[in-house]
Amino acid sequence: MTDRQLAEAEALELAKRRERAARGYRFVDIPTARLNSGHEMPLVGLGTWKSAKGGEVGRAVEAALRCGYRHVDCASQYKNEEEVGAALSAVFAQGVVGRADVFVTSKLWNTDHGRDRAQLACKKTLNDLGLEFLDLYLVHHPVTGNTGEELWPSMKETWEAMEALVDEGLVKSIGISNFSIKKTKEILSYCRVKPAVNQVEAHPHFRNDDLLKWCIENGIHVTAYSPLGSPDSAEILKRKVTPSLLGHDVVTNIAERLGKSPAQVLIRWALQHGTSVLPKSVHEDRIQANLDVLDWSIPEAEYQRLCSFHPQLRMLDGSYFTNPRGPYKRISDLWDDPEEDHRLAKFIQSQYDLNIVTPTTTLISGHQIPVIGLGTWRSAKGVVRDAVAMAIRSGYRHIDCAAVYNNESEVGDALNTVLAEGVVRREDLWITSKLWNTEHARNRVLPALQHSMRSLQCDYLDLYLMHWPITGNKGPQVEPPIKETWQAMEDLVDRGLVRAIGVSNFSAKKLADVLGYARIKPSVCQVEIHPYFRNDALIEFCKGHRIHVTAYSPLGGAPDTSTIVGRELPSPLKDHTVNAIADKMQKSAAQVMLRWGLQRGTSILPKSSNAHRIKENLDVLGWSLSDADFGRLSDLKQTRMLDGVWWLQAEGPYRTPQDLWDE
């Protein structure tokens, strides 16, 4: 270039800067990384994950580009690419920032893997963003959502589809996100176009050093997402995640000494750690502050302090992608790191009291059932998942479910989460479900069980109960007969699908009928029991036949039980005697009632979705009621709350409550 041409270029650039300034734009010379594809990628970009639709993400993108950002990181799964596209179009239309000035990244979602779907997904993203090409397109996760031992479609097929996008000119560079070293090596073994980038979680509490070092050695650039430690990952993972990086003493002290914000220190750390970085914000002042990390450095001694944080733990560990049926059964399978489960288990143990040992009792089947379980009846969708996960982390090992509760899939998600964390193993848990009334026929019992197992994501159940001695038929006899149903239940044990079988809401007479023909005796009878309904005769019958009794509604029924039964019911939790004993013992009324249930020899199933009460309900093991107080509770007025009158019909088989309960 001649001196004249150089002068003209400088004058043009100066004119552009002045025009930017006039329009409220700031020019920042952001350093770039040269990718193995030959293209330059700015080292600081704006993340758009969890930036809400409704104008928020669009305003953030426009603000970022005005502040000097030239890299915008998107993904189809973020569900906001149309708004990002509108913001880009608005900025381009102003003529100050052109398409060539902005580096735009997007990602292929899990359900769009494979030869045919990848191209369609990319074109949809381009259409939403209003672009003719992407600067970078990443495979979002090494996940397709299938179950089974192998990933399907195969990653090779998906990568070949990504390479075809480069050939067609739809994308300039391709790469991956959330890939381990092993999974990246596999791509390198067959790729024609090498991954240019691996976008992964990286921050002082998870430096990801081994992967970063390996990628550098193999010419793959690493981009760090969640550089601030993903403060909202606790909500995503449904568990506590501490400490907060932004509030960490070391981070805040360094920030104060340098006259910077904690966020700026963490973003600068990422740049000095050798990665590009994607801070996310929707507030214009923080968007600008996050970019003010280019003309200063963290001193070496302070940088090393930030590199020494413990624990080293993924905030976004992908546990939501694990499945006992594969291809990733545990977190360690997803990341190809056997230590991953161990690190997470240690962390969880530091957050929750996992030293509680719930007593068990031996069933006639020979198996040990924990005597305290979490009930899930009337636990609303959207709530029960958190309740089950919290209960298990708090020390519960028994979860009581039923198909008719219509929440077993959420219970299954919670079980999958805690098993993936590695804190408990499947064999540490006792999972109960129940056969609903409409599934009593021999050919319906197995499919009903299998449906519950799929929902609960379990390969077997510890206990399967006949929910009621009801089938819904009209006439003098129950049809199909209980004998047919029980024999089908026995078949489930023979198949190894359930460890023990039993009944719920059966009278002593109906249990005696089952014992008359049972090849495998009922292990458990689950019935209503609390101080307002002791159910003495049934307990004595079961004790004589070695049938364990589990008490449901041990607190006297849910607050809405009156609505269910259509009559006003008393509340044992408000009983004067119960509360007087609770005050004397310095316990809650609920704890007193639960302790009474344990001292009667039954297991109990308190239900709650409140974290405090879930823990409180488990705190009934290290103390006892005196004989006098136990007797006072056992002398309270008796009334059955859930009397089953809704099953009665004039045509039979149960015309009166006496027919149903044989009283």
Structural descriptors:
single chain, alpha/beta, 663 residues, TIM Barrel, eight-stranded parallel β-sheet
Can you describe this structure in just a few lines?
This protein has 663 residues and is an alpha/beta fold.
Which architecture of the largest domain does the CATH hierarchy give at level 2?
Answer: Alpha-Beta Barrel
**How many whole angstroms does the radius of gyration measure?**
31 Å
Largest sheet: 8 strands, parallel
Shape: elongated
- The largest sheet has its strands arranged as 3-4-5-6-7-8-9-10
Structural class: alpha/beta
General description of the model:
Belongs to the aldo/keto reductase family. The protein has 663 residues and is of the alpha/beta class. It has three domains: 30 residues; 276 residues, TIM Barrel (Alpha-Beta Barrel), CATH 3.20.20; 249 residues, TIM Barrel. It is built from 26 helices and 20 strands. An eight-stranded parallel sheet has the order 3-4-5-6-7-8-9-10. Helix 15 runs parallel beside helix 24. The chain is elongated, with a radius of gyration of 31 Å. It starts with a helix and ends with a helix. The mean pLDDT is 91.
